[in-house]
Amino acid sequence: METITTSSTSVTKDTPLMTPEKPNEVVENKVIDRDHRGQTVGDVTVENPRMTARNVNVWYGDKHAIQNVNLDIANNEVAALIGPSGCGKTTFLRCLNRMNDTIDGCLVEGEIALDGKNIYDKDVDVVPLRARVGIVFQKPNPFPKSIYENVAYGPRIHGLARNKTDLDEIVHSSLKRSGLFDEVKDRLDQPGTGLSGGQQQRLCIARAIAVSPEVILMDEPCSALDPIATATIEELIDELRKKYSIVIVTHSMQQAARVSQRTAYFHLGDLIEVGPTSEIFTNPKHKLTEEYITGRFG
Amino acid sequence: MTEHTEGHIVRRYDGELAQLRGMVLEMGGLVLFQLDQFVNLLGNSTEKLAKQIIERDNDVNRLDIESHRDVLKLLAKRAPVATDLRTIISAAKVVTELEHIGDELVKVSCLYIDIADSKRPQLDENLLQDARVMGKMAHTMLRGAVDSFDTVNLEKSIHVAQESRELENEFQAALQKLTNYKSLESDNNVSNTLSMVLVINAMERIGHHTKNIAEYVVYMAKGKDVRHVGLDRLFEEIYISN
Ligand SMILES: Nc1ncnc2c1ncn2[C@@H]1O[C@H](COP(=O)(O)OP(=O)(O)OP(=O)(O)O)[C@@H](O)[C@H]1O
Ligand SMILES: [Mg+2]
Predict the structure, then answer these.
(1) What pLDDT was estimated at residue B6?
(2) pLDDT below 50 — which residues of chain A?
(3) Which of A22, A82, B49, B52 has its CA 20 to 30 A from that of B81?
(4) A91 alpha carbon to ligand 1 midpoint, in Å?
């Protein structure tokens, strides 16, 4: 715990948060928050959690990137993670399916449970874990293979299909659910990389849902897409929510407001506030949340 | 400018919000003037004064239209959230209430012109007295409400809500008096009495719209919808919960 205190103090000190007009106010707020570490404003728990994160701390070497964060992800909910660049949204998201394991010098502490089981336990195999908790990145990253193979890969390695008919069925239904099927059904053997950005993103979503995940993590999935492609993906997210839990990182306040039921605001590695999206965007409780979402600081 | 408009990274946004608030205040000032003129009319009724009030309502309507246009523009352009959203929505609501007050004043001013045209005897001083009292009360309230919007002063908003209760009592008492009014024998007095009922009713409505304005100020500042809650709850919402 000593490390935490020291490093968080240095974060406070180095924070370029001060605006010339109201230096004390903002910093004061921050200080209050740090004195009540773990006291995120709003209820971090939910009645029907799919995932629960408790006392999560993440370091990249000396850099304390996530500080004692507690947060539940509910069943059939879209949770949005928002906050200024570098506040730790991606870091936290990647903790939820142990993607950070692959980063040298990255240390994750605390407990993150999926359906009550800590995913950081020694006996947890990350390969099936990442099928249960899928991830879609900001930049669509289809494999340099055919559209069909992009989707078929996961079910195949996880042994979800007994034969070719099964696999075809999974590929087709995944492409249908991601809203891509009609556009690609005549060229399933063509490379996935030959699709447009929005199509590639929907291909990646099809790939993620092909392995029947329970949770889908999305890191700025629409940042490179036009409004129509964005709307298609948002519609899809709403559809996917019926079966899955979704955690989405977005820089678009409007997108968070449109797609999510709960919103979590991160600031310098702290989870500052969490609440129903409608409340966060009409009447946030914490000054930092308000200043961020109204565009009053960067 | 106030905290409710300042501090955006995009400075033009500050300016647009300040302009909207400015327009609401301008409209508030104009409607206050209209109400003041009407109270004067109750003292020494001249047809000219009544016509001026009716004429001037065009300016009130113009401000109504202009502010709603700005509200739409802000919503479309800035996709406002949190305090900004509440400020804009409250401004739109306040403008609508002001416009309604303007309409009430036009209605009762028309009444005056009718009386003048119909060669009825002048209104009885007894009848006028209550209307004047109510008009002045409504005026004080409206000034308080517009001030509370300007300075986002919730104590003033509460005060307005309290005064609205007093105005309501005054209204009930005046109605009672009119019902018992002795000299209803002649037809002229009947129609004069009816006119007076319409006038005091308008003052009561103005008080009601004014109370709404005060409540929107609370919503703007606190994010709490305090319409249709009693005074005690209003007090609680403002002072006890944060
Ligand atoms: N691999 C890494 N090594 C060292 N530091 C890192 C690494 N990845 C992230 N960080 C640091 O951790 C902090 C949180 O980064 P993270 O990528 O989680 O932020 P973010 O909220 O996703 O930002 P953005 O909105 O820009 O994507 C930042 O200060 C970042 O510089
Ligand atoms: Mg990120």
Answers:
(1) 84
(2) 1-38, 298
(3) A22
(4) 6
Polymer length in residues for chain B? 242
Q: Which of B145, B144, B203, B195 is nearest to B173 (CA)?
A: B203
A44 to each of A69, A74, B39, B150, how far by Cα in Å? 9, 10, 56, 37
Average predicted confidence (pLDDT) for chain A: 87
In which element (H, E) is residue A71 found? strand A63-74
Question: How high is the ipTM of this complex?
Answer: 0.79
In the predicted model, what is the mean pLDDT of chain B? Answer: 89
CATH of the domain at B96: 1.20.58.220
CA distance A3 to B148: 49
Cα torsion for B122, B114, B132, B123, to the nearest 10°? 20
Question: What is the domain count for chain B?
Answer: 1
Closest CA to ligand 1's atom 22: A90
Q: C-alpha distances in angstroms, A62 versus A3, A35, A38, A44, A53?
A: 9, 21, 20, 27, 22
Token readout for A266 is 């991160």
Three-state secondary-structure class, residue A260? coil
Distance from the CA of A249 to the center of ligand 2, in angstroms? 7
> Quick one: fold of A75-94+118-293?
Rossmann fold (3.40.50)
Which residues does chain B have within 8 Å of residue A42's beta carbon, measured at their own beta carbons?
none
E strand map for B141-208? none
- What is the domain range of residue B176? 3-239
* b/e sequence B23-48, b meaning 16+ C-beta within 10 Å: bbbebbebbbebbebbbebbeebeee
- The domain locations on chain A are 1-34, 75-94+118-293
- b/e string for A74-110 if b means 16 or more Cβ within 10 A? bbebbbbbbbbeebbbbbbbbbbbbbbeeeeebebeb
Sign of CA dihedral A42, A45, A49, A55: positive
Among A41, A62, A132, A78, residue whose Cα is nearest residue A257: A78
A95 by DSSP, 3-state: which? helix
A250 in ligand 1 pocket by Cβ < 6 Å? no
Tokens of residue A102, six digits: 């692959």
Q: Strand order of the sheet with strand A63-74?
A: A63-74, A49-60, A106-114, A117-118
Cα–Cα distance, A257 to A263 (Å, whole number): 8
**How buried is B176 (Cβ within 10 angstroms: 0-12 exposed, 13-18 middle, 19+ buried)?**
exposed
CA distances for A239 relative to A46, A205, A213, angstroms:
21, 12, 14
Q: What is the pLDDT of residues A211-253, one digit of tens each?
A: 999 999 999 999 878 888 889 889 989 999 999 999 999 999 9
Do residues A61 and A99 make contact, with C-beta atoms less than 8 angstroms apart? no
d(CA B156, CA A271): 36
pTM of the complete model? 0.83
pLDDT at position A9: 32
